[in-house]
């Protein structure tokens, strides 16, 4: 697990390729993984900076099928997303989206359609709601 944490810290994303691994990932194990990850980040911030105020935030990127997180200095109230953000109080909704994504077989290339960018698409992006777990560290 520690090797994985070092890998995760370097790239700020986590991608599960093995469906068997994801199927065995319980909510409790996921919560422990995230808690250890946040603790590691806290320690790194404390070692590198005099001020240890930071904000950790995490979401599931459905399009890339990746668990993503970021840490910004200070305690922020506005996150850098172009859509509606629903701040969730636990990691469970993020875990549920991760599990749901991998249980879906996906869309085949033949089912995709080419779409031109237009104003309606930009408005639809603003209406999309993204669940984000936020923790001040």
Order of helices and strands: HEHHEEEHHE
Average pLDDT figure: 78
Helix count from the secondary structure assignment: 5
| Integer count of domains | 1
Largest sheet: 5 strands, mixed
Terminal CA distance reads 22 Å
Structural class: alpha+beta
Low-confidence regions = 1-11
Portion of residues in beta strands equals 15-25%
Write down how many β-strands occur, each being a DSSP E stretch of 2 or more residues: 5
Placed side by side, the strands forming the largest sheet appear as 1-3-2-5-4
Cα radius of gyration in angstroms = 17 Å
Anisotropy-based shape: globular
Helical content, roughly?
A: 40-55%
Could you explain how this protein is built, in words?
The chain has helices at 2-11, 19-23, 27-48, 92-103, 119-127; strands spanning 13-14, 54-61, 66-73, 84-88, 129-136. By secondary structure, it is α+β, with helices and mostly antiparallel strands. It has one domain (2-106, 123-136). It has a five-stranded mixed β-sheet with strand order 1-3-2-5-4, with helices on one face. The longest helix is centred in the first third of the chain and has 22 residues, at 27-48. The radius of gyration is 17 Å and the shape is globular. The two termini are 22 Å apart.
Main attributes?
single chain; 137 residues; 5-stranded mixed sheet; 5 strands; 42% helix; 23% strand; disordered N terminus
SSE blueprint:
Layout (H helix, E strand, L loop, with lengths): L1 H10 L1 E2 L4 H5 L3 H22 L5 E8 L4 E8 L10 E5 L3 H12 L15 H9 L1 E8 L1
Parallel strand pairs: 4-5
Antiparallel strand pairs: 1-3, 2-3, 2-5
């Amino acid at each position: 697990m520690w090797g994985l944490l070092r890998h995760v810290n370097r790239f700020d994303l986590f991608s599960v390729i093995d469906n068997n691994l994801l199927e065995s990932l319980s909510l409790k194990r996921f919560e422990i993984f995230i808690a250890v990850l946040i603790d590691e980040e806290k320690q790194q911030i404390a070692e590198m900076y005099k001020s240890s105020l930071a904000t950790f935030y995490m979401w599931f990127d459905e399009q890339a099928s990746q668990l993503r997180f970021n840490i910004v200095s200070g305690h922020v109230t506005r996150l850098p997303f172009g859509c509606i953000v629903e701040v969730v109080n636990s990691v469970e909704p993020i875990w549920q989206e991760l599990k749901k994504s991998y249980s879906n077989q996906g869309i085949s290339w033949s089912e995709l359609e080419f779409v031109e960018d237009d104003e309606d698409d930009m408005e639809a992006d603003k209406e999309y709601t993204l669940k984000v777990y936020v923790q001040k560290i």
